[in-house]
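In these records, each integer encodes one residue's backbone shape. Here is one protein:

___
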Amino acid sequence: MALAAGNVRASAETPSLQRLVDAAAPGATVRVPPGVYQGDVVIEKPLHLIGSPGAEIRGSGAGKTVAITAPDVTVEGFLITNSGRNLMTDDAAIHISADRALVKNNQIANSLHGIYLKKARDCRIVGNTITGTAVAAEMDASDPGDGLENCDAAAPKGGPGNGIHQWSCSGTFLEGNVITRTRDGIYFYFTDHNVIKNNTVSHVRYGLHYMYSDDNVFEGNRFFENAGGAVIMLSERLTVRDNDFFDNRGGRATGLILLSVDDSLVENNRIERNTLGLFINQANRNRVIANKIDSNHTGLHFNGNSDANSFSANSFRRNLYPVEMNGDSGSTRWEVAGVGNRWDNVAPLDFNADGIGDLPHRELDMLGYLRRNFPPIGLLADSPALRLLRFAHQRAAIPGVNTIQDNAPLLGSAPGLRHVAP
């Protein structure tokens, strides 16, 4: 079959893909038929490497199975396996250290990191399936309130790495990737101006693990059945919209953690059936709008060191413990433009029939971290004494009690609210 000038077709007998890559002209398209090809391939020129169904690049077990060191490289359609396991050399199935790479529709297995991006700009990672060897139940998604010592990037020696790992990157577009059984699903470190859409991450430690990365958009992703859904730390100006964080369970599992996150929008996410739904600590000037934070063991943990946040049109329903607080809610607003949130047990008074309660709704937490340090004390949460205290507090605020006060709680089918101005 005739090929365009500069294009190359590998034969099924090609023992080394590296020879074929080296022989191709810059910018050529190299089409690889089915077969197992020797890995540890280094691509040092612009190139389009396209695998037919059944084409596998199998690494030596030491190093990077495919290393992209030149801009404008495409790797598409391969099974890529058997990278090295050395954390010090960033071993991965695909390692990218150049701009504008496209990694599309590959299957990745039996490797340390799946796709590792290092100081790369404007790359596209689309439609890949990355499968590790981790077991989420054996991982530790440690309590974020205990500090950052368990949030490092290093994997245990001999253990799995991360699905997609980014360090010092910008402009990456991640869409439609499926990641399972890695250490963390998607890892960000000093990585700005990215779009992360419609990815699915399950059976990992943290679905999303994220630090020092600003101006990113997370939209339409699903993080489920992990030791922790997503932990976002030390970052600003994020958009977290239309994502699912559900069925993340375990002794300390959380759907979504915001730790030292400022000036961000968290909107229309589903945070359900987690041990802890939403955790907020040292987070300021964020808008939390129209999220479903339902059916968790604890719905919301809010630390009093967080200021000037605004909550509106969220649902906090059917949580065993609606709120866990450490300090008061300070300058945070629990209603915006006259629209509050949905809670259980709101007083059903609505004389003007606008779907907004006429009395403030108060949520208090008398047990706080005692439930975590002394789990049996949770048995007191529904005791007659605490129920009486909640009843009294609902009608007249008790001085000295940490309280969330929503002055416009939603009733019935009152409309939600989106895109609220700060």
